[in-house]
Amino acid sequence: MKTICLQFPLETLDGRLLLPAGSSIHGSFLKGFLKNRRLPAVRQRLLFEHRRIESDLREFCAEKPYNAIFYSSAWTRGVFGILAGCRMRPAFFDFLDHFEKSDIYTYRHSLIVYALSVQIARVMDGPAGARRMSTVGPTHDFGKVCVPRSTLAKSTPLTAAERARLEHHTVAGFLLLAYYLGQGGGMAPVVARDHHERRDGSGYPARKKSFAREVEIVAIADVYDALISPRPYRRHCYDNRAALDELTAMGRSGKIRIGLVRALVALNRRSPANYLKCDLSLEKRGRPPAGNCHGILAS
Ligand SMILES: [Fe+2]
Ligand SMILES: [Fe+2]
């Protein structure tokens, strides 16, 4: 991996300093960082055994436009059947509990992006792909535990320093998940690090142009949910049509893989079996909302 200089301190869920700002992160550093980390022998627990996760997720999937995506009992049963069998380490639950209390948007977003990613993987790669996707867990934004609440909730343009702190959630999520999950973390840390990268190199933190299938799937689910959900930096949400137009434009400009857009549009049209034949409209039919300060820096 490319060397990364940590711009901000890395803190655990309970506020302990793990690494100071300025730490240089590279392959051999990581080996040393994780070498002495003894994971306590804890029992992994079923995702749906924890508090209200199953009922909350069912509620989120029943809201528009997700009710179209999880439209039939067979499709909903398929995804929930896979998620019901997922066992997770305590860090996943601690992360969800943290945001359920402090930022309900991130709690909901984490769960719905997870379920949607499994659904997209199922359309594209079948049940085996969906099961593989489910091992990533609902923690792509784990690193947001290191971002001040005032930045996450800010309704006006971010300053350059705030934007850097927000972007730090990718590297922070990678390191924290590697720390909490050890060698058994699978793709979860990688997805946390790379889900804002884009295929044309315009993303962050490393401007990579190629990344794992799981990362690409979470990335499109992440953008879609952010567009159609209420956000502090935008007075109104995108309507579903405008959100799909936006993702189609990202696909056509090479930021995300066009096949992923086809899968998401096909799910919206309730025809996922033929997603490769799904035509994408060239016409912009939705209306992006006014008053959106996402991506604008405060001068
Ligand atoms: Fe993110
Ligand atoms: Fe996200």
Can you tag this structure with a few keywords?
two-stranded antiparallel ribbon; mainly alpha; 299 residues; globular; 4% strand; binds fe (ii) ion; Hypothetical protein af1432; two-stranded antiparallel sheet; 51% helix; 6 strands
Question: Could you outline the blueprint of secondary structure elements for this entry?
Answer:
Elements: E1 4-5, E2 10-11, E3 17-19, E4 24-25, H1 27-35, E5 45-46, H2 53-62, H3 66-69, H4 73-84, E6 87-88, H5 90-102, H6 104-134, H7 149-152, H8 160-181, H9 188-194, H10 213-228, H11 240-252, H12 258-268
Antiparallel strand pairs: 1-4, 2-3, 5-6
This protein binds fe (ii) ion (FE2) (2 copies).
Distinct ligands, ions and cofactors found in the model: fe (ii) ion
From the N-terminal CA to the C-terminal CA, the straight-line distance is 34 Å
**Can you summarize the main beta sheet?**
2 strands, antiparallel
In spatial order, strands of the major sheet run 1-4
Rg over CA atoms, rounded to whole Å, is 19 Å
CATH class: Mainly Alpha
- How many distinct helices? 12
Structural class: mainly alpha
Proportion of helical residues = 40-55%
H/E element order: EEEEHEHHHEHHHHHHHH
